């Protein structure tokens, strides 16, 4: 039963990584850039939810929605102000800018909200579900996290496969020039992608802080890096890849913590990543870039 | 319908188009021919808004489109089949056609797909296939079908024969003539001067960034200069 318990915690942590990784992978797919500020959007979302619920005593649902709204706007603003002017610039310039935005958000948060840790309120509820006559207990946070991840995955698959905007997004990620010739406004499509990725980051932030309720301005950076790793692990640019990579990474991390060593768990995670990339450089579900004939 | 007036286009410091002027009237097939690097594709890219001229003017249906963004032009009735086809390889044939109809608000009418399939029956057979698995000829047909989906008033084709076997080139050109017979206005850019001049009402010859010659398709096909330079005789 302890094994099952570890597995569930792993899937739950992995679900959070997966939701963050979706933001990385969608933005990479369309803008061909690594948005290293993505992890810090999670942190902003968590703070918004924290203030809404703890200070203004709003219902948790409203807190989550407020966090999503603020992060969506933040994502669009960051793209417009920091990345859009660099659309024709070398990718290294964009990468450095993204790191700059990341520090800007972290330091901005320190200035606004002080570096003192905040105790995140329980948005989901502290209850636990007892299964198998109490041998296996699962917290509501775990269940809600896994359920959110499944819902988001289904929603995104339907969105990219069946809506006009979703298809336009795929068209842009394949060939922006050809997409423009179809009448697709590439800039607004990129904005929508940032908006969706950032909205998801807010959800991930709330789930993350519900499971690990210690909120500081650097809360987002480690999960951000892990989720980036998950996106690469699964094959960057691929939505199912981000999901698979995220969940595997979470499970490997928890198992390494449980059965190997708590201190070494991150080393084990990255060792697995290196091995996978040596064998499959495009990631688990990554596509080799198809040659244009 | 389309008037290009003295456009100058640069790639950085390279003066690629040095005052190109020509026009396309409604219902015509106009061919732009010339050697590799003469500026044919640059001319098309400038019309479709992918590049902008430093000076000169482009008018389409009495509207100045010189500096209009590329994505706004399909709604005005301009469609381009780009060089190298550039279909969406990871999307299905149907999805590619849907993207062609992107400017259409609401559900794309079934007749629009049927119209494309009537010109290209093979696309109908392969409708749910991923476009990347199509043969080169089929990809060209898909690129042309995709452009038709927007009901263009002017269809611009950039090197439709490139990389295709001679029998497929014949097929593509007979479809171009089909479009023409149905009343379409076409601007055709081709390196294959022989085929282009056969179907064109009028043609312009581009040489290192400017128009060197112009005339009806038949006139140019018989001109000694053209024969020597482009038709291998």
Could you characterize the architecture of this molecule?
The complex is a heterodimer of chains A (293) and B (233). Chain A is built from 11 helices and 4 strands. Chain A is mainly alpha-helical. Chain A has one domain. In chain A, the strands form 2 sheets. Chain A has a two-stranded antiparallel sheet with strand order 1-4. In chain A, α1 (2-31) packs across α9 (221-234), α2 (38-55) crosses α8 and α10 crosses α11 (265-279). The mean pLDDT of chain A is 91. Chain B is α/β, with parallel strands linked by helices and 233 residues long. Chain B contains 9 helices and 10 strands. Chain B has helices at residues 40-47, 93-100, 110-119, 121-125, 136-148, 166-181, 193-199, 217-222, 224-230; strands at 2-11, 14-24, 29-34, 55-60, 63-64, 78-81, 154-158, 185-190, 202-207, 210-216. In chain B, strands 6-7-8-3-9-10 form a 6-stranded mixed β-sheet, sandwiched between helices. A 4-stranded antiparallel β-sheet of chain B has the order 2-1-4-5, covered by helices on one side. Chain B is globular, with a radius of gyration of 17 Å. The chains are: A mainly alpha (293), B alpha/beta (233).
Terminal CA distance of chain B: 35 Å
Main sheet specs of chain A: 2 strands, antiparallel
Neighbour order of strands in the largest sheet of chain A: 1-4
Q: What is the domain tally of chain A? A: 1
Mean pLDDT of chain B: 92
Strand content of chain A: under 5%
Please identify the structural class of chain A as seen in this structure: mainly alpha
* Shape field of chain B: globular
**Spatial sequence of strands, sheet with the most strands of chain B:** 6-7-8-3-9-10
């Amino acid at each position: 039963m302890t094994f099952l318990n570890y597995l569930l915690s792993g899937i739950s942590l992995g679900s959070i990584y997966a939701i963050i990784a979706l933001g990385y992978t969608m933005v990479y797919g369309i803008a061909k850039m690594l948005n290293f500020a993505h992890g810090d959007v999670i942190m902003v979302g968590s703070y918004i939810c924290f203030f809404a619920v703890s200070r203004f005593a709003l219902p948790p649902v409203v807190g989550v929605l407020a966090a999503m709204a603020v992060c969506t706007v933040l994502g669009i603003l960051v793209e417009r102000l920091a990345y859009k002017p660099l659309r024709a610039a070398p990718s290294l310039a964009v990468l450095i800018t993204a790191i700059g935005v990341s520090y800007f958000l972290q330091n901005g948060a320190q200035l606004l909200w002080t570096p003192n840790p905040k105790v995140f309120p329980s948005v989901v509820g502290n209850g636990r579900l007892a299964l198998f006559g109490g041998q296996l207990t699962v917290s509501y946070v775990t269940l809600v996290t896994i359920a959110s991840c499944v819902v988001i995955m289904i929603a995104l698959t339907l969105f990219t496969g069946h809506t006009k905007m979703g298809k336009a997004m795929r068209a842009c990620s394949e060939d922006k020039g050809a997409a423009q010739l179809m009448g697709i406004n590439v800039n607004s499509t990129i904005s929508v992608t940032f908006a969706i990725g950032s909205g998801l980051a807010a959800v991930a932030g709330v789930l993350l802080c519900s499971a690990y309720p210690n909120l500081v301005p650097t809360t987002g950076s480690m999960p951000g890096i892990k989720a980036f790793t998950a996106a690469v692990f699964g094959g960057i640019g691929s939505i199912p890849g981000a999901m698979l990579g995220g969940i595997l990474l979470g499970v490997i991390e928890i198992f390494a913590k449980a059965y190997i060593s708590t201190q070494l768990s991150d080393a084990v995670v990255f060792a697995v990543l290196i091995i996978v990339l040596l064998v499959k450089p495009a990631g688990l579900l990554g596509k080799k870039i198809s040659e244009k004939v | 319908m389309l008037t290009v007036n003295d456009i100058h286009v640069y790639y950085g410091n390279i003066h690629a188009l040095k005052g190109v002027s020509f026009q396309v009237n409604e219902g015509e097939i106009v061919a732009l021919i010339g050697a590799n690097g003469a500026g044919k594709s640059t001319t098309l890219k400038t019309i479709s808004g992918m590049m902008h001229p430093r000076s000169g003017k482009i008018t389409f249906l009495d509207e100045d489109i010189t500096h209009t963004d590329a994505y706004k032009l399909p709604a005005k009735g301009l469609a381009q089949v780009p060089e190298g086809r550039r279909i969406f390889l990871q999307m299905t044939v149907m999805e590619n056609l849907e993207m062609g109809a992107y400017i259409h608000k609401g559900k794309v009418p079934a007749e629009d797909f049927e119209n494309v399939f009537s010109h290209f029956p093979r696309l109908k057979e392969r409708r749910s296939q991923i476009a990347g698995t199509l043969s080169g000829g089929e990809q060209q047909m898909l690129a042309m079908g995709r452009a038709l989906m927007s009901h263009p008033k002017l269809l611009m084709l950039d090197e439709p024969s490139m990389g295709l076997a001679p029998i497929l080139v014949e097929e593509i050109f007979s479809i171009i003539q089909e479009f023409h017979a149905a009343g379409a206005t076409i601007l055709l850019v081709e390196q294959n001067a022989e085929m282009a001049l056969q179907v064109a009402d009028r043609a312009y010859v581009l040489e290192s960034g400017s128009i060197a010659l112009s005339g009806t398709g038949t006139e140019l096909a018989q001109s000694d200069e053209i024969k020597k330079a482009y038709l291998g005789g």
